[in-house]
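hiii, so i know i said id send this last week but things got crazy w the move. better late than never?? heres the sequnce for the chain we talked about at the cafe, plus the structure i predicted for it. fair warning i was half asleep when i ran it
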Amino acid sequence: MRNLLVTLLLAAVVFAQNTAPKLPSNDAVRISEFYRLATQHQDEVWPGWSAAPAPLLLVTNDTEFLTHHPSPPKDFQKIADDQYARPRQFSTALLATFPAFGPPSVIVIGEPENTEAKTSTPWLFVVMHEHFHQLQDGRPGLYQAVNDLGLSHGDNTGMWMLNYPFPYDNPELGKSFAHLRDLLLTALDDPDSGKFKPLARQYIIARKAFFAQLSPDDRKYLNFQLWKEGIARYVQIKSAETAAHYQPSPAFASLPDYQSFESYAREARSATLSELKKADLASWKRVVVYSFGAAEGLLLDRLDPTWKQRYFLQLFTLDPFFEN
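okay and structure toks below
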């Protein structure tokens, strides 16, 4: 009887091991490459970035895989060292960072083919974008500061960040935005430092006039989005350019959809600036903040290369960098 019981217990253990979900091999390679890339380059891109925690939840068709989390929730099953799994709950197309299980914020992302990234190398730098949100979210008192903006109007889900009733459809505002967008692109396009300064000055004057058209809440909202999402896109570009000569692991370079880092680095900035050239406030709505805020970050690199050191001194606005 005792031998039978031991046999049954061993069989149960073997069955559990065989039925436990397993992280797909290509996904394991991509996730490993993200942590490898971040370790090598994050502080070169942004000072102190390595201090940010970096838990990641990969959403596959049937299962969610969690790693680098300090306290995995109880509904996750441990499947390997620092790997946990549960049945899928989030969308497979998700690209977001938020405190899904309470602090710290978690990168929640689908597999490349299910997201806007489409392939492995762009996906990697989208994860870097999301990882920068973890640095933003980790600032002491940040969530209280977000609440203090007074923009949620009773929405405790955080969806107000996407659905805030900004006056995107205002024709005069749209015309003013298009003018501002063109001035920003013109300043960035001129490599001559002598010509750049008056172009930048012209942009700064127009920027102040544009923001002066907004109500106090609308101004706070747009500033918040440019500070948060726009600069995260800027960091995505700078991460790619910093990693242009990064040597990926043989496993990552062997992925069927691999694109060289040098090739992606050449495309990252131009793709965002091309996106900005087409940005239309009325039809694109909130999406304009990504390319516009990224371009402002690139402009700040030329105006004052030390600007990143002051980025967290005044939360949710880039206005101080354009005051002089």
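btw The first strand starts at residue 56 and ends at 59. thought thatd interest u
miss u guys!!
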